[in-house]
Amino acid sequence: MMQYRQAKYTDHELIAHLHADSWRRTYRGLFTDAFLEHEADADRVRVWAQRLKTPAANQAVFVAEANGVIQGFICLYGGDDPQWGSLIDNLHILHGEKRQGLGRNLMTRAFDWLMDGYAGSSVYLWVMENNQAARCFYEKLGADNAGVIDKPNPVGGGSARNCRYVWDSPLQLRSTLAKFRAS
Length: 183
Description:
Elements: E1 3-6, H1 12-26, H2 33-38, H3 40-53, E2 59-66, E3 69-81, E4 85-93, H4 102-117, E5 123-128, H5 132-140, E6 144-152, E7 159-167, H6 170-182
Parallel strand pairs: 4-5
Antiparallel strand pairs: 1-2, 2-3, 3-4, 5-7, 6-7
Helix pairs in contact: 1-3, 4-6
């Protein structure tokens, strides 16, 4: 049975390895092969250990877990940017669990959290332009592509074209998510 909860520090390694595996499967050719094969896991362990040991005041991380295995996670920062609002920094689902509703369910938890403290803020995220599956997912959830820019990759060198997807408010996404549940 799938459970959804806030992440805790002891989850950092499982989250990190899921994150690195997602990058290897999705961003081959955008990050260097050397980074993806030899550095991504250690890099993500460092990042997630820090994020979960000393979380920012405006940070929330939720996980989907079944039988002690993290199947997906979402990380967000409320009120991150004065112009664009709250940031969804990461949403990753275990490869074999995609298209099972986990992404929508994690988005629901994220937007419920945003409604509690950042309801007046718009919401945005970055997705690499060539990640068509993610782009379609966010578009189905009612996000608008507010533009494409070249952004340096967060690690591993290089840069890639990224789309900024935006919702006017958490309420806009909540409405779209409710339509999914009704159908």
